[in-house]
């Protein structure tokens, strides 16, 4: 059963000079929009994730409580539900799908929020990982509209180290002969399995493996964890979709927003929203040092670090202690 809706973007022009024709943005809403449309939360998706992967942070008694807020989860372009390599018709199908930026994604989401719902103010934009990248982008693209932002385990600009990691993911996938330059008929499963193993060493911390936390999760050995969790995770994904989102991630940079000409510090300073920026202490993709630098230039931001051995996945909803820390902090931000 389909539990989401589509917003027609029409002929949607992308930042890098291509038009996606008859583009569609998949989204799901939770709760009810109040009379003055002041209870809106936008919660973008992350790398390979779809709206249902965000639902761990939505629920009764939580900060994102549908009884109190109208929560919109828009699916990123390229994630398999919104217009993507796997569902777009020729000629921009499969490996011909164009490059999409965070700026493009947020502009599409803004069209949904304003044209579909008539919303003028957003109480909060919140997101994990690539969702955090979109959260920063909301703050810079629409500073008069967004009142609060809560980016966690992500950054306003993808670091060189993070770009190098993603080159490893890309190479693992494209080394599979079955990938066929993106024109495969059957999934390149060897490449997808390899991506899972590359990700395994980066998504979680050294301490996670040292303490054998995977045994507490119900896996019987390290190899069982690598196959059942990591390979299994990526075998469900489409390779071209992964590569499209990977490009978006590698090219994340709010200073590429029109009007900022690559001036990263100036762009950070233009984010007016009240912010809690939340890295995870042992995140190998987005270390706290990157966010410390960002917060120095943001006029209304606080840095708050998740103390956890779960690395990047401290923000993934897989550990109750970390989830409570995130949720409590969002409640505090919403109350401010």
Descriptive report:
The chain has 336 residues and is an alpha/beta fold. It folds into 2 domains: 5-158 and 253-335, Rossmann fold (3-Layer(aba) Sandwich); 162-245, Rna Polymerase Sigma Factor, Chain: A, CATH 1.10.1740. The protein contains 11 helices and 8 strands. An 8-stranded mixed beta sheet has the order 1-2-4-3-5-6-7-8, sandwiched between helices. A hairpin with a 5-residue loop joins strand 1 and strand 2. It is globular, with a radius of gyration of 19 Å. The chain starts with a strand and ends with a helix. The mean pLDDT is 98. The active site is at 129 (nucleophile), 283, 312.
What's the arrangement of secondary structure elements?
Elements: E1 5-13, E2 19-30, E3 40-42, E4 70-74, H1 102-116, E5 124-128, H2 130-141, E6 148-152, H3 160-174, H4 189-203, H5 206-210, H6 213-216, H7 222-235, H8 239-250, H9 264-269, E7 274-277, H10 288-297, E8 301-303, H11 320-335
Parallel strand pairs: 3-4, 3-5, 5-6, 6-7, 7-8
Antiparallel strand pairs: 1-2, 2-4
Active site: 129, 283, 312
Domain AB hydrolase-1: 63-313
Protein name: AB hydrolase-1 domain-containing protein
List keywords for this structure.
alpha/beta, Rossmann fold, 11 helices, 8 strands, AB hydrolase-1 domain-containing protein, AB_hydrolase_fold
CATH architecture of the largest domain: 3-Layer(aba) Sandwich
Secondary structure: number of strands: 8
User: What is the number of domains?
Assistant: 2
Percent strand: 5-15%
Q: Strands across the major sheet, in which order?
A: 1-2-4-3-5-6-7-8
**What's the number of helices?**
11
Oligomeric form: single chain
Instruction: State the CATH superfamily name of the largest domain.
Output: Alpha/Beta hydrolase fold, catalytic domain
How can the largest sheet be summarized? 8 strands, mixed
Helix proportion? 25-40%
Rounded average pLDDT = 98
Instruction: Tell me the overall shape.
Output: globular
Radius of gyration: 19 Å
Organism: Stenomitos frigidus ULC18
Pfam family, one: Abhydrolase_1
GO molecular function, one term: acyltransferase activity, transferring groups other than amino-acyl groups
Active site: 129, 283, 312
